[in-house]
Amino acid sequence: MRRSAGFTLISMMVGLLISSIAILGMMSLYKTLVHNAADSIVRSTLDGQVSSALLTAEMELQGAGFAIPGATANNDLVILTNASLTADGNLNGNKLTITSASPGSEGNAIIWGADISGAGYRCSGLLAQNGGLTLLQPTPCSAASAYSGAAWNGVQLIAENTLNDEQAVAMSAALATCWPYGKSTSASAVLVSLSAGTSTFADSAETKHARQIADICLPGISQSQVVK
Q1: How many C-beta atoms lie closer than 10 Å to residue 85's C-beta?
Q2: Which of 22, 132, 152, 203 has its CA 20 to 30 A from that of 145?
Q3: 197 neighbors 167 (Cβ within 8 angstroms)
Q4: What's the CA gap between 40 and 53, in Å, rounded?
Q5: Nearest of 170, 216, 172 to residue 195 by alpha carbon
């Protein structure tokens, strides 16, 4: 008598077990791929936002002192520490003296004066606050050093809470001999440095982020430290 051909219960159970293991492995791999893709999107978005913000800040800063005869550091360009912008548009902070000492006066806001449109003296600024970077739009003022008396409106270049404390935007200003865009010609001017942390880590322990740096030479601001 011939035995019937086919699958036994044991062989079916073994096959089911192998299939289940393979499916679980594929699901785990899919989860990892989705997580890595999402993480890459977040990282690239952050780096793009930082790059765009620093480029915009650099372009705005290049106008410092424009059409202001005898524009000077500490009067037509000032750097503030502990600066903050209130909901009703008041800018608070402590003004530092810009000198030639390295690495420069370090703060979290820079205010400058210019007459870009021919409508008279206007103050503009950059403010690093709450893990973001805000462009303070031009507003009438008597001098950059009179920042507290102006009515400010801000546009966020980097949204607040985007950067952690280690990535936060850093600013410094120093009297220097330089020329915009690294040209060999140099003149007495003010050198402003802006930097912000990127998504890339600078150390193997992944505790310190690499920073993107923008150095902006401002020949429109002289080194005289006379304060009106």
Answers
A1: 20
A2: 132
A3: yes
A4: 20
A5: 170
Report helix, strand and coil shares of the chain as percent, to nearest 5: 25, 35, 35
| Domain hosting residue 177, numbered range | 43-218
The structure tokens listed for 50 are: 């930082």
Handedness of CA 38, 42, 47, 51 (dihedral sign): positive
In the chain, how many domains are there?
A: 1
pLDDT tens-place string over residues 19-75 = 888 888 888 877 777 777 777 887 888 999 999 999 999 999 999 999 999 999 999
| CA–CA gap between residue 225 and residue 211 (Å, rounded) | 30
Task: For residue 20, tell me if it sits in a domain.
Answer: no
- Gyration radius (Cα) of the chain, Å: 28
SS3 10: helix
Nearest partner of 84 among 162, 143, 197, 160, judged by Cα: 160
Which candidate, 166, 165, 164, 186, places its Cα nearest to that of 175? 186
Q: Buried (b) or exposed (e) across 113-127, using 16+ Cβ within 10 A?
A: bbbeeeeebbbbbbb
Q: Which residues pair with 106 in a beta bridge?
A: 172
Quick: pLDDT tens for 133-175.
999 999 999 999 999 999 999 999 999 999 999 999 999 999 9
Q: What is the pTM of this model?
A: 0.83
31 falls within a domain: no
